[in-house]
Amino acid sequence: MRAQFRTRIRFILAFIILVTVLIIARLYFVQIVHGEDYAQKADRQFASGGSGLFDRGSIYFTRKDGMLISAATLQTGFLVALNPQTLQDPETAYRAITTIASSSMSRDVFFAAAAKKSQVYVEVVHHLSDQVGQKLSALHISGVQVLRERWRQYPGATLAAQSIGIVSYGSGDTLAGRTGLEAKYDSVLSRSGDSLYKNFFAELFSNVGNLLVSPKDAHEGDIITTIEPEVQTRLESDLAKVNQKYSSKESGGIIMNPATGAILAIANYPSYDANVLQNVDPVLLGNPLVEHVHEFGSIMKPITMTSSLDAGVITPETTYNDTGCITVNKATICNWDLKPRGVIPMKQIIVQSLNLGAAWIATQLGQDAFRMYFTNLFGQETGIDIKNEGSALLGNLSTTQQVNFDNMSFGQGISVTPIQMIRALGAIANGGVMVQPHLVSAVRLNSGIERKLDWNKKVPVFSATAVRETAEMMTAVVDEKLEGGKAMIPTMSVAAKTGTAQLTDGRGGYYKDRFFHSFTGFFPSYNPKFIILLYTNDPQGVQYASETLDETFLDLVHFLIDYYAVPPDRGLSDHGVATSTSSG
Amino acid sequence: MHNFHYPFHHSFTALCSGVLAILAVSYIGLIAVVMSYAASTIEFSQSVRNDESVVAVLEAEYLSAVAQITNTNYAADGYAVPVAKIFVPAKSTTALR
């Protein structure tokens, strides 16, 4: 019995010794054979004095088919740092480095760094590719460290740059989102830095709860935007063409789904390349479509019209006598061409863009009702998910002078942000209900859960009847007026309105020869999938928005119809086949 | 006087030795596993990041191609704007091509 027990003990001991030998062998390989590699990797994380490699969540565009394309991600590569105290032959080191990384490093920068003998760590070149970094690392140059690094990369470069935002150090020593979505969703995108390298057993013994359900995983993740990259590209391209053609100060545009508030494209020209920020004008870093206010001019008329229709003070059949000019509170208000139209119905106010007509229906509406509608539409920020949203300048709503209300009725004397403007106009395209514009549809958490964001805050402002009547008038603008009626698409109803506002001179008056052009439209007119707002600020050598932005608007309409294969909503033959001629 | 002999004297010593040996080996094993785990985690995470970088490069190429196509002046390349467009019901196979 005892002999048998002893045999078992020996067998177990032999097994333990065998396991011990294996473990020691493994430790030998980890610590001795590969020890230097791991030591170097550890050094790479700590030698730079940082808390490890930069880590941050991604931002995605969403293509029409649902595929996600990175708008902001991380790029991995190498940096080169010197230890001037151990760098013995700077000239040889410089030659060796530039042989591989030829154009990445300035000679002056390198030798200035090498001369800092009191320091032990000076970075001389960043963002080397993986291939170059590996080659440099293999050289083992004394006093030269080749360290892995990660940095923020924007694959689209200029694409939606002002909305995506940037990451920078700011005034502190921490990289964080400073503008756009990078700033708004910084708490989701930022990482604590230890998630990739946490010690499983240390976590197990110290905080088993965090290991199983990490609280960070409940709020850290990636964000998915509603921006469609090809639509965004088209909008940016068109805006650049307009801006360059008319030497405008700036041009902007938004394309939105009026039913949901999802923004498909939002752009301003000029913008910047988010990957090259060294020489960017700080003024460009914000988002002017959200932050800046403008007097939009006649694209305000459909809102005045809808308000009056909704209030019941007019109907589409109501007529008025247009005299060309009127005097209100000692101020003269005229039509854009100073010409009288005589007795005409309401539709012509929109089709011919008559200031007197807008002023007339504002008078019919009355100051209190006008104030109520415009306060509902513009009195609050839209709540879009971009920081620093601007507020409308509605001071004239608080006055009692009728001339101020007359001016506001056709978009002068009232300043709103482009995002507020498209939100208000979107109510006409969405059965009278204002939606909340937004750029992010969902957050994809590290836990793998995709959390849809709630953007269902809706504000009813007009009746469905009133908005349909206005939509009919705006559709007539395209069918009858735009490009002399040639812009009409036989198989698609498109509602639109142009706007031309005089620019303020900063002294309480307006320039007579400097303008702000705007253009809005939606289609299909009676069940819109898209609403577009465009503007160009201070275009040169041209007076009316119908001359500057109609081509851009129509290009975007045709592009969207083709790209999304929007089915015809009119012009169908008995056989269900629609034929049309097109201006392209 | 009865000389009491603990019946498991030798077994107990052997048991303690065995447990001690197991604990020692487990301790060393734990260290080895932790080190291997940490090394693997670093390798895997770096591998993921490298792949993400490669994907980002491809995405940049895609977006650049989209921009290039958008900015192409087809008229200058000899293409003409269609004079007519015909909308065909989706049930037609022609529309699906």
TrEMBL record, chain A:
Q: Which UniProt keywords apply?
A: Membrane, Transmembrane, Transmembrane helix
Record has Cell membrane as a keyword: no
| Protein name listed in UniProt | Penicillin-binding protein transpeptidase domain-containing protein
Q: Name one GO biological process term.
A: cell wall organization
* Domain of life assignment: Bacteria
Q: Where are the transmembrane segments?
A: 12-29
List the molecular function annotations (GO) for this entry: penicillin binding
Kindly report the protein's main subcellular placement as a broad class. membrane
| Organism listed in the record | Candidatus Kaiserbacteria bacterium RIFOXYD1_FULL_47_14
Automatic annotation (TrEMBL), chain B:
Q: Identify the species of origin.
A: Candidatus Kaiserbacteria bacterium RIFOXYD1_FULL_47_14
Alphabetically sorted, this entry's keywords are: Membrane, Transmembrane, Transmembrane helix
Q: What is the lineage of its organism?
A: Bacteria, Candidatus Kaiseribacteriota
Regions crossing the membrane: 12-39
| Protein name, UniProt field | Uncharacterized protein
On whether Transmembrane helix is a keyword of this UniProt record, the answer is yes
